[in-house]
Amino acid sequence: MIVPIPAVVPPGRMSRTDQPVFGLANGFELRPWRPDDAKVLADSCQDPDVQQWNRPGHLSLDDAGERITRWEKRWRTEEAAVWAISEPGGGSPVGLIGLGDFDLCGGSAEFLYWLLPAGRGRGVMLEAVVRVSRWALDDLGLHRLRITHSVANAASCRVAQKAGFALEGTMRSALLHSDGWHDEHLHARVQGDAWPG
Ligand SMILES: CC(C)(COP(=O)(O)OP(=O)(O)OC[C@H]1O[C@@H](n2cnc3c(N)ncnc32)[C@H](O)[C@@H]1OP(=O)(O)O)[C@@H](O)C(=O)NCCC(=O)NCCS
């Protein structure tokens, strides 16, 4: 007799709720992207570090607006969850954090994130990764979350490690950057792993 394996997260659990807003201890906020954030999103592609590590290419203002609309839709279709990291007081975004590559049936997803210079150097991303991980694991019920980054991106590696994402290995020649193929670290957190601090 074949015993069916149930979906780790049943369909509809995510789309039934509105995308939450999370306050961070340092006053920053995680909130859904809004249509009037399109210019910040388009301009973020000009930041040399975002360009180097996140490889967004060029994004016109129209492209950015469409992307924001697509993120809203992907929450409802349970394909992605993407937040703006905004300045204290609901200001404009200084960064992005999200989960993509959703596999609700299998129980996993992968982080994407970046900060503009105005948001860097204050531990904001560490806190944001922990907050979104708690939502994804405790509230949504995923089992495993991944962070992958170029082995040359020391800041991202530190964020992953401090957020309790164990280094599981190195994926050779895994992603093509502007200066050639980079090896990538694979970090992950699974249900039951200890939370930092
Ligand atoms: C990666 C990123 C999110 C980290 O955010 P940040 O605000 O710059 O990070 P913080 O200043 O809080 O530093 C986090 C840790 O990394 C360390 N760190 C920061 N920059 C570093 C660097 N260039 N080299 C080595 N370590 C670095 C910090 O010392 C800190 O560790 P500590 O708390 O033990 O001192 C941000 O730098 C960023 O968005 N960079 C551009 C795009 C990018 O890298 N995206 C990620 C793609 S996977």
TrEMBL record:
- Please list the residue ranges annotated as the N-acetyltransferase domain: 28-193
Tell me which SUPFAM superfamilies the record gives. Acyl-CoA N-acyltransferases (Nat)
> What keywords tag this UniProt record?
Transferase
Answer whether the UniProt record assigns the keyword Transferase to this protein.
Answer: yes
Xref: PANTHER family: ACETYLTRANSFERASE, RIBOSOMAL-PROTEIN-SERINE ACETYLTRANSFERASE
Matches recorded under PROSITE patterns:
GNAT
| Highest taxon of the lineage | Bacteria
Question: What is the designated name of this protein?
Answer: GNAT family N-acetyltransferase
Note whether Transferase occurs among the keywords.
yes
Cellular component aspect of the GO annotation: cytoplasm
A GO term for molecular function: protein-N-terminal-alanine acetyltransferase activity
Which Pfam families does the UniProt entry name for this protein? Acetyltransf_3
